[in-house]
Protein backbone atom coordinates (compact mmCIF):
# COMPACT_ATOMS: atom_id res chain seq x y z
CA UNK A 1 0.00 0.00 0.00
CA UNK A 2 1.39 3.27 -1.03
CA UNK A 3 2.07 5.80 1.59
CA UNK A 4 0.43 9.13 1.00
CA UNK A 5 2.68 11.97 1.92
CA UNK A 6 1.46 14.15 4.85
CA UNK A 7 1.64 17.80 4.33
CA UNK A 8 1.25 20.71 6.67
CA UNK A 9 -2.14 21.50 5.24
CA UNK A 10 -3.37 18.02 6.08
CA UNK A 11 -2.32 18.42 9.67
CA UNK A 12 -4.04 21.79 9.94
CA UNK A 13 -7.19 20.30 8.46
CA UNK A 14 -7.18 17.43 10.91
CA UNK A 15 -6.72 19.65 13.91
CA UNK A 16 -9.47 22.01 12.82
CA UNK A 17 -11.84 19.14 12.24
CA UNK A 18 -11.10 17.67 15.64
CA UNK A 19 -11.66 21.01 17.41
CA UNK A 20 -14.94 21.58 15.61
CA UNK A 21 -16.26 18.10 16.40
CA UNK A 22 -15.18 18.06 20.11
CA UNK A 23 -15.91 21.09 22.50
CA UNK A 24 -12.87 21.88 24.53
CA UNK A 25 -13.44 21.73 28.36
CA UNK A 26 -13.13 24.61 30.77
CA UNK A 27 -13.88 27.25 28.18
CA UNK A 28 -10.75 26.51 26.27
CA UNK A 29 -10.62 28.67 23.17
CA UNK A 30 -9.10 28.11 19.81
CA UNK A 31 -7.00 31.17 20.19
CA UNK A 32 -5.26 29.67 23.13
CA UNK A 33 -4.50 26.56 21.17
CA UNK A 34 -3.26 28.43 18.20
CA UNK A 35 -1.04 30.58 20.39
CA UNK A 36 0.32 27.49 22.01
CA UNK A 37 1.07 25.87 18.64
CA UNK A 38 2.79 28.95 17.52
CA UNK A 39 4.94 28.95 20.67
CA UNK A 40 6.13 25.34 20.34
CA UNK A 41 5.98 23.78 16.86
CA UNK A 42 7.91 20.63 17.78
CA UNK A 43 5.37 19.35 20.35
CA UNK A 44 2.21 17.31 19.70
CA UNK A 45 -0.66 19.55 18.58
CA UNK A 46 -2.99 17.77 21.06
CA UNK A 47 -0.55 18.18 23.96
CA UNK A 48 -1.80 21.64 24.87
CA UNK A 49 -5.42 20.54 24.80
CA UNK A 50 -4.65 17.50 26.96
CA UNK A 51 -2.63 19.63 29.36
CA UNK A 52 -5.47 22.14 29.65
CA UNK A 53 -7.92 19.29 30.32
CA UNK A 54 -5.70 17.96 33.12
CA UNK A 55 -5.43 21.41 34.59
CA UNK A 56 -9.21 21.74 34.54
CA UNK A 57 -9.57 18.38 36.21
CA UNK A 58 -7.11 19.46 38.93
CA UNK A 59 -9.26 22.56 39.90
CA UNK A 60 -11.26 22.22 43.26
CA UNK A 61 -14.47 20.30 43.15
CA UNK A 62 -17.72 21.09 45.06
CA UNK A 63 -16.93 18.61 47.88
CA UNK A 64 -13.48 20.04 48.26
CA UNK A 65 -14.98 23.55 48.38
CA UNK A 66 -17.45 22.49 51.12
CA UNK A 67 -14.61 20.93 53.10
CA UNK A 68 -12.60 24.09 52.80
CA UNK A 69 -15.60 26.13 53.91
CA UNK A 70 -16.13 23.81 56.91
CA UNK A 71 -12.49 24.17 57.87
CA UNK A 72 -12.74 27.92 57.58
CA UNK A 73 -16.03 27.84 59.65
CA UNK A 74 -14.33 25.76 62.33
CA UNK A 75 -11.49 28.24 62.46
CA UNK A 76 -14.00 31.12 62.86
CA UNK A 77 -15.88 29.22 65.57
CA UNK A 78 -12.64 28.50 67.37
CA UNK A 79 -11.71 32.18 67.23
CA UNK A 80 -15.24 33.17 68.46
CA UNK A 81 -15.01 30.61 71.27
CA UNK A 82 -11.64 31.99 72.35
CA UNK A 83 -13.09 35.53 72.29
CA UNK A 84 -16.16 34.49 74.33
CA UNK A 85 -13.96 32.72 76.87
CA UNK A 86 -11.92 35.91 77.18
CA UNK A 87 -15.04 37.98 77.76
CA UNK A 88 -16.32 35.50 80.37
CA UNK A 89 -12.98 35.61 82.13
CA UNK A 90 -13.18 39.41 82.22
CA UNK A 91 -16.71 39.20 83.67
CA UNK A 92 -15.55 36.71 86.30
CA UNK A 93 -12.71 38.98 87.28
CA UNK A 94 -15.05 41.99 87.50
CA UNK A 95 -17.58 40.00 89.59
CA UNK A 96 -14.79 38.80 91.87
CA UNK A 97 -13.57 42.38 92.35
CA UNK A 98 -17.13 43.57 93.06
CA UNK A 99 -17.68 40.73 95.52
CA UNK A 100 -14.45 41.57 97.28
CA UNK A 101 -15.59 45.20 97.55
CA UNK A 102 -18.93 44.10 98.97
CA UNK A 103 -17.20 41.86 101.46
CA UNK A 104 -14.98 44.75 102.57
CA UNK A 105 -18.05 47.00 102.97
CA UNK A 106 -19.86 44.30 104.95
CA UNK A 107 -16.82 43.72 107.18
CA UNK A 108 -16.49 47.45 107.84
CA UNK A 109 -20.20 47.75 108.64
CA UNK A 110 -20.14 44.76 111.00
CA UNK A 111 -17.10 46.20 112.75
CA UNK A 112 -19.02 49.44 113.29
CA UNK A 113 -22.05 47.48 114.54
CA UNK A 114 -19.95 45.59 117.07
CA UNK A 115 -18.34 48.83 118.21
CA UNK A 116 -21.79 50.40 118.59
CA UNK A 117 -23.08 47.43 120.62
CA UNK A 118 -20.01 47.66 122.83
CA UNK A 119 -20.71 51.37 123.26
CA UNK A 120 -24.28 50.59 124.33
CA UNK A 121 -23.00 48.11 126.90
CA UNK A 122 -20.49 50.60 128.27
CA UNK A 123 -23.12 53.35 128.48
CA UNK A 124 -25.57 50.98 130.19
CA UNK A 125 -22.90 49.96 132.70
CA UNK A 126 -22.25 53.66 133.42
CA UNK A 127 -25.99 54.16 133.88
CA UNK A 128 -26.09 51.35 136.41
CA UNK A 129 -23.04 52.75 138.18
CA UNK A 130 -24.77 56.11 138.59
CA UNK A 131 -27.49 54.48 140.73
CA UNK A 132 -25.20 53.55 143.61
CA UNK A 133 -24.27 55.96 144.99
CA UNK A 134 -27.16 57.99 143.63
CA UNK A 135 -25.83 60.79 141.43
CA UNK A 136 -28.42 62.72 139.37
CA UNK A 137 -25.78 64.42 137.20
CA UNK A 138 -24.14 61.12 136.30
CA UNK A 139 -27.59 59.65 135.71
CA UNK A 140 -28.46 62.31 133.18
CA UNK A 141 -25.11 62.03 131.43
CA UNK A 142 -25.28 58.22 131.30
CA UNK A 143 -28.86 58.32 130.09
CA UNK A 144 -27.89 60.70 127.29
CA UNK A 145 -24.96 58.41 126.38
CA UNK A 146 -27.23 55.34 126.15
CA UNK A 147 -29.68 57.22 123.93
CA UNK A 148 -26.84 58.44 121.70
CA UNK A 149 -25.43 54.91 121.28
CA UNK A 150 -28.85 53.50 120.45
CA UNK A 151 -29.38 56.22 117.87
CA UNK A 152 -25.98 55.39 116.35
CA UNK A 153 -27.04 51.76 116.16
CA UNK A 154 -30.28 52.78 114.46
CA UNK A 155 -28.33 54.83 111.91
CA UNK A 156 -26.18 51.80 111.12
CA UNK A 157 -29.34 49.74 110.65
CA UNK A 158 -30.73 52.30 108.19
CA UNK A 159 -27.41 52.45 106.39
CA UNK A 160 -27.38 48.66 106.03
CA UNK A 161 -30.91 48.67 104.63
CA UNK A 162 -30.07 51.37 102.08
CA UNK A 163 -26.90 49.55 101.03
CA UNK A 164 -28.75 46.26 100.69
CA UNK A 165 -31.43 47.92 98.57
CA UNK A 166 -28.75 49.48 96.33
CA UNK A 167 -26.97 46.14 95.96
CA UNK A 168 -23.76 47.14 97.75
CA UNK A 169 -24.23 44.57 100.50
CA UNK A 170 -25.85 41.15 100.12
CA UNK A 171 -29.33 40.91 101.71
CA UNK A 172 -29.39 39.55 105.28
CA UNK A 173 -29.94 35.91 106.02
CA UNK A 174 -33.67 35.39 106.73
CA UNK A 175 -32.85 32.91 109.48
CA UNK A 176 -30.64 35.44 111.31
CA UNK A 177 -32.35 37.52 114.03
CA UNK A 178 -33.03 41.14 112.93
CA UNK A 179 -31.16 44.00 114.50
CA UNK A 180 -34.42 45.21 116.11
CA UNK A 181 -34.60 42.00 118.15
CA UNK A 182 -31.01 42.46 119.24
CA UNK A 183 -31.66 46.02 120.44
CA UNK A 184 -35.07 45.25 122.02
CA UNK A 185 -33.63 44.07 125.39
CA UNK A 186 -31.61 47.27 125.70
CA UNK A 187 -34.65 49.39 124.89
CA UNK A 188 -36.72 47.52 127.47
CA UNK A 189 -33.99 48.00 130.06
CA UNK A 190 -33.78 51.68 129.16
CA UNK A 191 -37.54 52.11 129.58
CA UNK A 192 -37.39 50.40 132.96
CA UNK A 193 -34.54 52.66 134.02
CA UNK A 194 -36.53 55.68 132.85
CA UNK A 195 -39.45 54.62 135.04
CA UNK A 196 -37.15 54.05 137.98
CA UNK A 197 -35.57 57.43 137.38
CA UNK A 198 -38.96 59.14 137.37
CA UNK A 199 -39.93 57.33 140.57
CA UNK A 200 -36.67 58.31 142.26
CA UNK A 201 -37.06 61.89 141.07
CA UNK A 202 -40.57 62.05 142.51
CA UNK A 203 -39.28 60.58 145.77
CA UNK A 204 -36.49 63.13 145.80
CA UNK A 205 -38.97 65.96 145.25
CA UNK A 206 -41.06 64.64 148.12
CA UNK A 207 -38.04 64.53 150.42
CA UNK A 208 -37.14 68.08 149.44
CA UNK A 209 -40.65 69.23 150.31
CA UNK A 210 -40.46 67.43 153.66
CA UNK A 211 -37.11 69.04 154.37
CA UNK A 212 -38.50 72.47 153.53
CA UNK A 213 -41.50 71.87 155.79
CA UNK A 214 -39.30 70.65 158.66
CA UNK A 215 -36.97 73.61 158.25
CA UNK A 216 -39.91 76.00 158.25
CA UNK A 217 -41.34 74.43 161.41
CA UNK A 218 -37.98 74.62 163.16
CA UNK A 219 -37.50 78.23 162.15
CA UNK A 220 -41.01 79.03 163.34
CA UNK A 221 -40.31 77.55 166.77
CA UNK A 222 -37.02 79.44 167.08
CA UNK A 223 -38.55 82.72 166.01
CA UNK A 224 -41.74 82.68 168.00
CA UNK A 225 -40.75 81.35 171.38
CA UNK A 226 -39.09 84.69 172.20
CA UNK A 227 -42.26 86.45 171.07
CA UNK A 228 -44.28 84.41 173.51
CA UNK A 229 -41.97 85.35 176.36
CA UNK A 230 -42.01 88.99 175.35
CA UNK A 231 -45.80 89.06 175.39
CA UNK A 232 -45.94 87.79 178.99
CA UNK A 233 -47.09 84.50 180.46
CA UNK A 234 -48.84 82.38 177.88
CA UNK A 235 -47.95 84.88 175.12
CA UNK A 236 -50.43 86.34 172.64
CA UNK A 237 -51.15 85.70 168.97
CA UNK A 238 -49.57 88.13 166.53
CA UNK A 239 -49.82 88.83 162.83
CA UNK A 240 -46.18 87.77 162.37
CA UNK A 241 -46.95 84.41 163.99
CA UNK A 242 -49.91 83.91 161.66
CA UNK A 243 -47.75 84.74 158.61
CA UNK A 244 -45.17 82.18 159.72
CA UNK A 245 -47.84 79.53 160.29
CA UNK A 246 -49.33 80.27 156.87
CA UNK A 247 -45.95 79.57 155.26
CA UNK A 248 -45.61 76.34 157.25
CA UNK A 249 -49.08 75.23 156.19
CA UNK A 250 -48.26 75.88 152.56
CA UNK A 251 -45.00 73.95 152.85
CA UNK A 252 -46.84 71.01 154.46
CA UNK A 253 -49.54 70.89 151.79
CA UNK A 254 -46.89 71.18 149.07
CA UNK A 255 -44.97 68.25 150.61
CA UNK A 256 -48.10 66.10 150.78
CA UNK A 257 -48.96 66.95 147.16
CA UNK A 258 -45.46 65.84 146.14
CA UNK A 259 -45.90 62.58 148.07
CA UNK A 260 -49.25 62.00 146.37
CA UNK A 261 -47.66 62.60 142.96
CA UNK A 262 -44.97 60.04 143.80
CA UNK A 263 -47.61 57.44 144.69
CA UNK A 264 -49.50 58.13 141.45
CA UNK A 265 -46.33 57.50 139.44
CA UNK A 266 -45.49 54.41 141.49
CA UNK A 267 -48.95 53.03 140.73
CA UNK A 268 -48.09 53.15 137.01
CA UNK A 269 -50.47 56.01 136.23
CA UNK A 270 -49.68 58.90 133.90
CA UNK A 271 -49.37 61.88 136.26
CA UNK A 272 -50.90 64.56 134.02
CA UNK A 273 -53.91 62.43 133.07
CA UNK A 274 -54.53 61.32 136.68
CA UNK A 275 -54.27 64.92 137.89
CA UNK A 276 -56.73 66.13 135.27
CA UNK A 277 -59.20 63.47 136.37
CA UNK A 278 -58.80 64.30 140.07
CA UNK A 279 -58.57 68.09 140.03
CA UNK A 280 -60.51 68.96 136.82
CA UNK A 281 -57.64 71.32 135.95
CA UNK A 282 -56.47 70.99 132.30
CA UNK A 283 -52.82 70.24 133.05
CA UNK A 284 -50.45 69.13 130.31
CA UNK A 285 -47.10 68.40 132.02
CA UNK A 286 -45.82 66.64 135.18
CA UNK A 287 -44.42 69.91 136.59
CA UNK A 288 -47.79 71.59 136.16
CA UNK A 289 -49.48 68.53 137.67
CA UNK A 290 -47.58 69.09 140.94
CA UNK A 291 -49.01 72.60 141.25
CA UNK A 292 -52.49 71.33 140.36
CA UNK A 293 -52.26 68.64 143.08
CA UNK A 294 -51.11 71.27 145.57
CA UNK A 295 -54.10 73.43 144.62
CA UNK A 296 -56.44 70.44 145.11
CA UNK A 297 -55.00 69.56 148.53
CA UNK A 298 -55.10 73.20 149.67
CA UNK A 299 -58.67 73.68 148.45
CA UNK A 300 -59.89 70.58 150.31
CA UNK A 301 -58.00 71.23 153.56
CA UNK A 302 -58.98 74.93 153.70
CA UNK A 303 -62.57 74.36 152.65
CA UNK A 304 -64.79 76.05 155.27
CA UNK A 305 -61.84 77.97 156.76
CA UNK A 306 -64.07 80.99 157.41
CA UNK A 307 -66.20 78.99 159.89
CA UNK A 308 -65.00 78.37 163.44
CA UNK A 309 -65.38 74.56 163.08
CA UNK A 310 -64.97 74.13 159.29
CA UNK A 311 -68.74 73.57 159.23
CA UNK A 312 -68.29 70.27 161.05
CA UNK A 313 -71.00 71.38 163.49
CA UNK A 314 -73.24 74.36 164.10
CA UNK A 315 -71.24 75.86 166.97
CA UNK A 316 -71.40 79.66 167.40
CA UNK A 317 -69.13 80.08 170.45
CA UNK A 318 -67.22 82.88 168.74
CA UNK A 319 -70.40 84.97 168.77
CA UNK A 320 -71.51 84.19 172.34
CA UNK A 321 -68.21 85.04 174.08
CA UNK A 322 -65.63 86.22 171.54
CA UNK A 323 -62.82 86.95 174.04
CA UNK A 324 -63.11 83.60 175.79
CA UNK A 325 -63.30 81.84 172.44
CA UNK A 326 -60.09 83.55 171.25
CA UNK A 327 -58.24 82.60 174.44
CA UNK A 328 -59.42 79.01 174.15
CA UNK A 329 -58.31 78.76 170.54
CA UNK A 330 -54.89 80.16 171.27
CA UNK A 331 -54.47 77.74 174.16
CA UNK A 332 -55.37 74.84 171.85
CA UNK A 333 -52.86 76.20 169.34
CA UNK A 334 -50.03 76.21 171.90
CA UNK A 335 -50.91 72.78 173.26
CA UNK A 336 -51.17 71.10 169.87
CA UNK A 337 -48.19 72.81 168.26
CA UNK A 338 -45.58 70.56 169.79
CA UNK A 339 -47.67 67.37 169.58
CA UNK A 340 -47.52 64.68 166.93
CA UNK A 341 -50.95 64.35 165.28
CA UNK A 342 -50.85 60.55 165.26
CA UNK A 343 -50.24 60.53 169.04
CA UNK A 344 -53.18 62.85 169.64
CA UNK A 345 -55.53 60.79 167.48
CA UNK A 346 -54.32 57.60 169.10
CA UNK A 347 -55.67 58.92 172.40
CA UNK A 348 -58.67 60.96 171.16
CA UNK A 349 -59.61 59.71 167.69
CA UNK A 350 -62.97 61.52 167.73
CA UNK A 351 -61.75 64.90 168.94
CA UNK A 352 -62.38 68.01 166.85
CA UNK A 353 -59.13 67.57 164.94
CA UNK A 354 -59.91 63.86 164.42
CA UNK A 355 -63.32 64.67 162.93
CA UNK A 356 -61.70 67.34 160.74
CA UNK A 357 -59.00 64.92 159.49
CA UNK A 358 -61.54 62.17 158.74
CA UNK A 359 -63.84 64.51 156.81
CA UNK A 360 -61.00 66.03 154.77
CA UNK A 361 -59.41 62.66 153.94
CA UNK A 362 -62.62 61.24 152.49
CA UNK A 363 -63.11 64.44 150.47
CA UNK A 364 -59.48 64.51 149.29
CA UNK A 365 -59.37 61.08 147.65
CA UNK A 366 -62.50 59.68 145.99
CA UNK A 367 -62.86 55.88 146.33
CA UNK A 368 -61.70 55.16 142.79
CA UNK A 369 -58.57 57.30 143.27
CA UNK A 370 -57.82 55.67 146.62
CA UNK A 371 -58.07 52.19 145.12
CA UNK A 372 -55.89 53.14 142.13
CA UNK A 373 -53.20 54.88 144.20
CA UNK A 374 -53.21 52.90 147.46
CA UNK A 375 -54.30 49.55 146.08
CA UNK A 376 -57.57 49.21 148.03
CA UNK A 377 -60.09 51.15 150.09
CA UNK A 378 -58.67 50.15 153.46
CA UNK A 379 -57.96 53.73 154.58
CA UNK A 380 -61.52 54.82 153.93
CA UNK A 381 -62.97 51.85 155.83
CA UNK A 382 -60.82 52.59 158.88
CA UNK A 383 -61.71 56.30 158.80
CA UNK A 384 -65.42 55.61 158.40
CA UNK A 385 -65.19 53.29 161.41
CA UNK A 386 -64.06 56.24 163.56
CA UNK A 387 -60.34 55.36 163.70
CA UNK A 388 -57.24 56.58 161.89
CA UNK A 389 -54.85 54.36 159.88
CA UNK A 390 -51.26 54.04 161.05
CA UNK A 391 -49.69 54.14 157.61
CA UNK A 392 -46.95 56.37 156.17
CA UNK A 393 -49.36 57.90 153.66
CA UNK A 394 -51.93 58.80 156.32
CA UNK A 395 -49.11 60.14 158.48
CA UNK A 396 -48.12 62.51 155.66
CA UNK A 397 -51.73 63.58 155.34
CA UNK A 398 -52.00 64.23 159.10
CA UNK A 399 -48.95 66.51 159.02
CA UNK A 400 -50.55 68.67 156.32
CA UNK A 401 -53.92 68.58 158.12
CA UNK A 402 -52.31 69.59 161.40
CA UNK A 403 -50.58 72.59 159.78
CA UNK A 404 -53.89 73.84 158.36
CA UNK A 405 -55.69 73.14 161.66
CA UNK A 406 -53.10 75.18 163.58
CA UNK A 407 -53.48 78.04 161.11
CA UNK A 408 -57.25 77.91 161.61
CA UNK A 409 -56.89 77.98 165.41
CA UNK A 410 -54.54 80.94 165.20
CA UNK A 411 -56.82 82.81 162.78
CA UNK A 412 -59.72 82.66 165.24
CA UNK A 413 -57.40 83.64 168.10
CA UNK A 414 -56.59 86.96 166.47
CA UNK A 415 -58.61 90.13 166.86
CA UNK A 416 -59.83 90.92 164.31
CA UNK A 417 -59.57 87.53 162.56
CA UNK A 418 -57.82 87.63 159.18
CA UNK A 419 -59.92 87.44 156.06
CA UNK A 420 -58.87 85.16 153.25
CA UNK A 421 -59.24 85.73 149.53
CA UNK A 422 -58.67 83.71 146.38
CA UNK A 423 -57.60 84.73 142.89
CA UNK A 424 -60.20 83.85 140.30
CA UNK A 425 -59.21 82.21 137.05
CA UNK A 426 -58.45 84.80 134.40
CA UNK A 427 -57.88 87.59 136.93
CA UNK A 428 -55.14 90.14 136.31
CA UNK A 429 -51.87 89.54 138.13
CA UNK A 430 -51.23 91.98 141.00
CA UNK A 431 -47.88 91.64 142.67
CA UNK A 432 -49.00 93.06 146.01
CA UNK A 433 -51.70 90.38 146.39
CA UNK A 434 -50.33 87.46 144.40
CA UNK A 435 -47.13 85.47 143.91
CA UNK A 436 -46.39 83.07 141.08
CA UNK A 437 -45.64 79.46 141.99
CA UNK A 438 -43.12 79.31 139.14
CA UNK A 439 -40.98 82.01 140.75
CA UNK A 440 -41.23 84.36 137.78
CA UNK A 441 -39.67 87.83 138.26
CA UNK A 442 -42.07 90.70 138.98
CA UNK A 443 -41.92 92.21 135.51
CA UNK A 444 -42.99 88.86 134.03
CA UNK A 445 -46.49 89.46 135.36
CA UNK A 446 -47.21 91.99 132.65
CA UNK A 447 -49.75 90.52 130.26
CA UNK A 448 -50.19 87.44 132.46
CA UNK A 449 -53.42 86.25 134.06
CA UNK A 450 -54.29 83.61 136.64
CA UNK A 451 -54.53 80.14 135.17
CA UNK A 452 -55.68 78.63 138.46
CA UNK A 453 -55.34 79.45 142.18
CA UNK A 454 -52.92 77.29 144.14
CA UNK A 455 -53.37 78.72 147.65
CA UNK A 456 -55.56 81.53 149.05
CA UNK A 457 -54.19 84.77 150.46
CA UNK A 458 -54.94 86.45 153.79
CA UNK A 459 -55.41 90.04 154.83
CA UNK A 460 -54.60 90.67 158.50
CA UNK A 461 -55.98 93.28 160.85
CA UNK A 462 -52.76 95.29 160.87
CA UNK A 463 -52.90 95.68 157.09
CA UNK A 464 -50.32 92.96 156.34
CA UNK A 465 -51.06 90.64 153.44
CA UNK A 466 -50.15 87.01 152.94
CA UNK A 467 -50.13 86.86 149.16
CA UNK A 468 -52.13 84.23 147.30
CA UNK A 469 -50.21 81.64 145.29
CA UNK A 470 -51.26 81.42 141.66
CA UNK A 471 -50.18 79.76 138.46
CA UNK A 472 -49.86 82.33 135.68
CA UNK A 473 -50.60 81.83 131.99
CA UNK A 474 -50.49 84.26 129.04
CA UNK A 475 -53.66 86.16 128.43
CA UNK A 476 -56.05 83.94 126.50
CA UNK A 477 -53.93 80.84 127.21
CA UNK A 478 -54.59 77.70 129.20
CA UNK A 479 -52.52 75.88 131.86
Automatic annotation (TrEMBL):
Segments forming domain GIL1/IRKI C-terminal: 421-471
Top-level taxon: Eukaryota
Coiled-coil residues: none
Compositional bias segments (type: Basic residues): 218-227
GO biological process: negative gravitropism; response to red or far red light
Biased composition (Acidic residues): 35-46, 64-77
Span list, region Disordered: 35-80, 214-235
The DUF641 domain, residue ranges: 102-219
Protein name: DUF641 domain-containing protein
Source organism phylogeny: Eukaryota, Viridiplantae, Streptophyta, Embryophyta, Tracheophyta
